[in-house]
Design goal:
Keywords: Glycosyltransferase, Transferase. One of its GO terms (molecular function) is UDP-glucosyltransferase activity. The protein has 20 helices and 15 strands. It is of the alpha/beta class. The longest helix is centred in the last third of the chain and has 21 residues, at 447-467. The two termini are 15 Å apart. The structure holds uridine-5'-diphosphate. Uridine-5'-diphosphate (UDP) binds at residues 16-18, 21, 266, 296, 298-300, 325, 355-356, 358-359, 375-378, 381.
Length: 493
């Protein structure tokens, strides 16, 4: 209503880039629609996330027509770790992954609760990362709706929900090849047991899962960085059958927020700008359309030196041009990818060490395929760019995302990953021949390669349509805003 202050939403992102980047983009897109957005974060993240907010406040495509955004900072508790580790990012990715990860989630509880006590009167809703399960209770204590942000696909979420609610493992042997059926989903979903998080093998992770899901179910609703036609039938399924949960699909947020071209701010969020981004893009300029495969496994994946050699061999055998990102700090960075002899081949390969301008690379006309670990952001970025995938999942939601890409959407080929194992655990080595064959299939002119490329291009067009005025994601943003405004009036009465 005229004269009423705009909605004020507090965004509270988790600290890893795969969570932080999409939530920052999401805040930008709500600000562009007139919502007052505050991003609550830690000192290390604040200095990096500032570039996203500054750009949004200064850009004509987003906030010029909307409401300025702001950042609030809560201290990261002193747990006797060096400052770099206190960003949470290093904490979560350090050796003893799970304890550290859980610790990171817990450490921010107290500062968050204190902030909310001081500021709740001024806030209409809290959008917090699903991992911060305790924020549901904290928001409820102040009568605030908590909306969980899920850094995953709705498909993966519906699958894990089914696993948690029905005893799917009970009637299944624990042989390596055993297959588990997930009942009641819009598609027939069968998954190898070895590719799933197994409660018997991972009790801590499983318990965390249960906490997170319970908190999300008790929340006001859930926000997904996705769009309806990408996950056919799942929005309806979620609303109708799954305890009548409210959910909004508002993505791809990178397209909606206009941050796509902004390599600098995305790199800054991860604290790892690539010095040679421009060189890499120039290298691509000289290549033929759809002739290059892009190879990257996100921010958390480590490969053994043996797997790195096989990957190098696979790229060589594929005969295709490639851009290969070797993340800083991964085990692989210290091994030498120039083996076997003669690799990388002449002018065929470009290796990025550190942070690659992924979104720009995927949208470059020279790129025709993406070898990916199926992290949800990477998957969505490939979909948005209309690029088919070679899928190489490792853990978390990645095997479900692979299923969506390969079996439901038909825009990818699996490399043959069989085992769910987190970043520092041992994986069965995928041979160079298998890697080369999947790449050739996805990049090939004939057979299913051509069909996949066509399908991927169409999905890219639909992704753009979803965030434009009148598109499904645009409408979902509007619907959530209306609900929150209506709630404000009813609470105020
Ligand atoms: N990313 C990037 N350059 C890199 C590595 C990663 O821009 O060199 C971005 C990528 O575009 C995506 C995010 O970091 O937005 C990684 O998220 P994803 O969910 O794909 O994987 P995660 O790292 O969380 O496993």
């Amino acid at each position: 209503k005229d004269g009423e202050p705009p909605l004020h939403i507090l965004f509270f992102p988790f600290l890893l880039p795969g969570h932080l980047i999409p939530m920052a983009d999401m805040a930008v897109l709500f600000a562009a629609r007139g919502v007052r957005c505050t991003v609550l974060t830690t000192p290390v993240q604040a200095s990096t996330i500032r570039s996203v907010v500054d750009r949004a406040n200064g850009s004509s495509s987003s906030s010029a027509a909307g409401t300025p955004m702001s950042i609030s900072v809560v201290p990261f508790p002193d747990v006797g770790l060096p400052m770099a580790a206190q960003s949470g990012r290093d904490l979560a990715t350090s050796r003893d992954y799970h304890d550290r990860f859980l610790q990171t989630v817990e450490l921010l509880r107290e500062p968050f609760c204190r902030f909310l006590s001081d500021h709740h009167a001024d806030i209409d809703a809290v959008v917090s990362d699903s991992l911060f399960h305790w924020s549901a209770h904290a928001a409820a204590e102040h009568g605030l709706p908590r909306i969980a942000f899920l850094a995953t696909s709705m498909f993966a979420r519906a699958c894990t929900d089914t696993v948690l609610r029905s005893n799917v493992f009970e009637s299944c042997s624990d042989d390596h090849g055993a297959v588990v059926s997930l009942p009641g989903l819009p598609h027939r979903v069968e998954q190898r047991r070895s590719q799933m998080m197994d409660p018997a093998k991972r009790p801590h992770e499983w318990a965390m899962f249960q906490l997170i899901h319970a908190a999300d179910r008790s929340s006001y609703g859930e926000l997904f960085n996705s769009f309806r036609v990408l996950e056919p039938g799942y929005a309806e399924h979620y609303r109708a059958t799954q305890l009548r949960r409210r959910a909004w699909l508002v993505g791809p947020v990178a397209l909606a927020s206009g941050s796509l071209e902004d390599v600098a701010s995305r790199g800054a969020v991860a604290g790892a700008l690539s010095p040679d981004a421009a060189v890499c893009l120039r290298w691509l300029d000289a290549k033929q359309a759809s002739s290059v495969v892009y190879v990257s496994f996100g921010t958390m994946t480590n490969f053994s030196p043996e797997q790195m050699r096989e990957l190098a061999r696979g790229l060589d055998l594929s005969g295709k041009n490639f851009v290969w990102v070797i993340a800083k700090g991964s085990t692989a960075a210290s091994s030498d990818p120039s083996t076997p002899d003669g690799f990388p081949t002449a002018n065929r390969g470009y290796i990025v060490r550190g942070w690659a301008p992924q979104v720009l690379i995927l949208n470059h006309p020279a790129v025709g395929g993406f070898v990916t670990h199926c992290g949800w952001n990477s998957t969505l970025e490939a979909v948005s760019a209309g690029v088919p995938m070679v899928t190489w999942p490792r853990y978390a939601d990645q095997f479900y995302n692979e299923k969506l890409v390969v079996e439901v959407l038909g825009v990818g080929v699996g490399v043959g990953a069989e085992d769910y194992a987190s970043c520092l655990e041992t994986h069965r080595v995928i041979a160079g021949e298998a890697i080369a064959e999947s790449i050739r299939r996805v990049m090939g002119e004939e057979g299913d390669g051509a069909a996949m490329r066509k399908e991927a291009k169409e999905l890219g067009v639909m992704a753009r349509g979803a965030v434009e005025k009148g598109g499904s994601s645009y409408d979902d943003v509007g619907q959530l805003m209306e609900e929150l405004i209506a709630r404000r009036s009813s609470v105020g009465c």
